[in-house]
Every structure is written in C-alpha cells, then in structure tokens.
Amino acid sequence: MNHAPTGGVLLLVEDDDSIGRLVKSYLEQQDGWRVVWLRTGEEAIAELRRHPVRLVVLDLGLPGIDGFEVCRQIRAQSKVPIVMLTARDEEPDRVAGLELGADDYVSKPFSPRELAARINAILRRVEQRGDDALLTGRDIVLRRDSHDVTVAGALIELTSKEFDLLACFLEHPGIVLSREKLLDLVWGMTYPGGTRTVDVHVAQLRCKLGDPDSIRTVRGAGYKLTSP
C-alpha cells in the first residue's frame, strides 16, 4: 500500500486526555509525526504561528472557542490540511465544518489506525496534486503558492473549495468530469454532503468567474471547463 510521506509537525487540538494521549502516542510511534498536543482553540491559533505545521487534527467540541471558529481562523491565515474530530452525529455539523475549509472528518469513537489512514489520504490528495504552481486556461490565472486567482487580470476572491475546484478544472481542460469524480478529487470520498454540493460550488464559481459559459454542464455526465 502506498502511503503519503509522514513526519513533521502535526497540531492535535483535543481536550479529552484519553483521546489526546492515544492519538499522540500512535501517530508519533507509527507514523513518525512530532505531535504538538493542545487542549484549547486559543492555544491552537497561537501555536500555529510558531511551528511549520503540516496538518491539524481538530476536535469540534472544545472549551472556549469551538472547533468551527478555530477552523475559520486557521483558514484565514493558512492552507494547512485540517481533519476534524467530532462526537456529533448531525450531518449539518459535519457539512458546516467541511464548508469552512476542513479537509475531512472522523467521528468518535474512532481507532487511531483509521485516523492515520485518513491523514495519509489527505496528504496524498493535497501534496501530490501536481507540481505546477501556475495553472492557466481561458483568461484565468491560478497561482497555488499565493492562492491567488485572476480573471482577465482582475483578482477574484474564492473560498478554499472554490479554489480547489477551479484548479481541478484547469488541470483537466476540455475533459468532462463527473460529479462523483469532482467530489472525490476536491472534497474526498468521505464527504457527507453528496454531489449536490458540487452543483452549488460550480454555480458559485461560474458567478465569480463572471462567465456562466466558462464551466459547461454536460447533461448526464458532469461538467467541463470550456475553451473561450
């Protein structure tokens, strides 16, 4: 089995001592991470600036500011991958976290092995997504390093998922991508929101690109980025 390369700093934000000890021990011993374990969201925001963090494992139910707000603040300053831990069974909570920019979630109770597998899957998806720092198509220029997108020279603001979705289309110009394929490439197979979220994000992306014909719907097949 191919694993994403591990090692580096992983920020674990979890206030439950037993879960924190278990996760820290497993990830350090099995996958070679240096785990910085914190118990509050306030500490997480502060520590993120002090370490070259490669991935964040974030509990939703934290004392003080909760995981949703921590995720929001992290995304305002960093593209670091985030895995959310949640004891909540309500789908809207999971979807809300992912829409804020989390890359995946793991529901409690979980095994450390499952968490490690999710982490490796995210790293493969994020870090092996292609080496091109610059993607172009039509009059669109996308820069991965600065996370900037311009259309006809004008800078546009995209959410994290809109950015990833546009990058996916630019990597596959003229190729029809099914909703299921887009869901896998951009959100990951475990995303609970279903293919409807793809339709919503495509509609938002078309609006921000300023051209409804830039991404064409291919009936019964999916979507594709069109030539000008």
Q: SSE order, as H and E?
A: EHEHEHEHEHEEEEHHHEE
Distance between the termini: 42 Å
- Coarse morphology: elongated
Strand content: 15-25%
Radius of gyration, taken over Cα atoms and rounded to an integer in Å:
18 Å
Largest sheet, strands/sense/barrel = 5 strands, parallel
Average pLDDT rating: 85
Number of strands: 11
Q: What's the helical proportion of residues?
A: 40-55%
Return the structural class. Answer: alpha/beta
Q: Counting H and I runs of at least 4 residues, what is the number of helices?
A: 8
Low-confidence stretches: none
Order of strands across the biggest sheet?
2-1-3-4-5
General description of the model:
This protein has 228 residues and is α/β, with parallel strands linked by helices. The protein has eight helices and eleven strands. The protein has helices at 17-31, 41-48, 67-75, 91-99, 112-127, 160-171, 179-187, 196-209; strands at residues 8-13, 33-38, 53-59, 82-86, 104-107, 134-137, 140-143, 148-151, 154-156, 215-218, 222-225. The strands form three sheets. The protein has a five-stranded parallel β-sheet with strand order 2-1-3-4-5, with helices on both faces. A four-stranded antiparallel β-sheet has the order 6-7-8-9, with helices on one face. A two-stranded antiparallel ribbon has the order 10-11. α1 crosses α5 and α2 runs parallel beside α3 (67-75). The mean pLDDT is 85.
